[in-house]
Amino acid sequence: MDIERNACGLFMKIFLGMYIAFLIAIISFTPHPSEMEPRFGLPVGGLFAAVGNKYIIDSILPESSSFTLVDTLHALTFIGIFATLLVSAIALRQYDNGKKELAEATNRNGAKIVVSLYVIFNVVFIILALI
After folding, report:
1. ∠1-71-15 over CA atoms, to 5°?
2. Closest CA to 84 of 54, 101, 53, 106
3. How many CB atoms lie within 10 A of CB 116?
4. Banded model confidence at residue 74, pLDDT cuts 50, 70, 90
5. Is the pTM value of this prediction over 0.85?
């Protein structure tokens, strides 16, 4: 017996907070590499929001010993936010060492890489869960 349901709405309810947390974190790529406060404050705020979302979702869903799609996407979000902080730290270090053009290039390219990999891995894991 095959059971099928349209769970798009449920998926968005579960993961909307997580995706908003990641979007808040990547906003930190917009300030200049020398502006330390927003470049580190936004991702940390996004990380707290993602962790809070994870705890809320874990309290709603049944306990499981396996690593589920929820766990995978949240782990991916944590890694993405950490990567955002890492790019910001590298760009700030380069800027402080007088390599302003390199810091801006690192920031720009790091943003593209982090966002691209996050989207690609999200799509891959979601498609694998559907199969």
Report:
1. 85
2. 106
3. 10
4. very high
5. yes
